[in-house]
UniProtKB/TrEMBL annotation:
PROSITE patterns per UniProt: VOC
Lineage summary: Bacteria, Pseudomonadati, Pseudomonadota, Alphaproteobacteria, Rhodobacterales
Residues of the VOC domain: 1-126
PANTHER family linked: GLYOXALASE FAMILY PROTEIN (AFU_ORTHOLOGUE AFUA_5G14830) (PTHR35006:SF2)
Pfam families (alphabetical): Glyoxalase
Organism: Paracoccus alkanivorans
Domain of life: Bacteria
Protein's name in the database: VOC family protein
Length: 131
């Protein structure tokens, strides 16, 4: 089981705005901000999560990542749809509209967005009932 994941971004302000909007329909919000001073000059880091636990981190201090894939669990199909809509409105680029992906399994329902740095961000539900 993975506890958390993180990757560098090229513009922390635009990435923050993107992820705040895109992840909101999934119940994920910004929980922690680590300043440049706090890291001793090793970048700014933002932790997104829920229930007081950040599990998705973005930050500066290294060259931006591109081509990373992260899939967030959604409670149902409507949350996947809302993620896709919010992410597009936040400036993401469509990389796969919401819908079934039976190639993975019969109950797989997902949507894919490219974030400001070109990372493939997904929301997925494994059956209408939940993630």
């Amino acid at each position: 089981m993975i506890d958390h994941i993180g990757f560098p971004v090229s513009d922390i302000s635009s990435s923050r705005a993107f992820y705040e909007r895109a992840l909101s329909p999934l119940g994920i919000s910004l929980l922690m901000e680590i300043t440049e001073e706090m890291t001793g000059g090793h970048g700014v880091h933002l932790g997104f999560g829920r229930d007081g636990k950040p599990f998705f981190w973005i930050g500066t201090g290294r060259p931006a990542a591109s081509g990373t894939h992260v899939a967030f669990a959604a409670r149902d199909h409507s949350a996947v749809d809302a993620f896709h809509k919010a992410a597009l409105e936040a400036g993401g680029r469509d990389n796969g509209a919401p819908g079934p992906r039976p190639i993975y399994h019969p109950d797989y329902y997902g949507a894919f967005i490219l974030d400001p740095d070109g990372n493939n961000i997904e929301a997925v539900c494994h059956g209408e009932g939940g993630a």
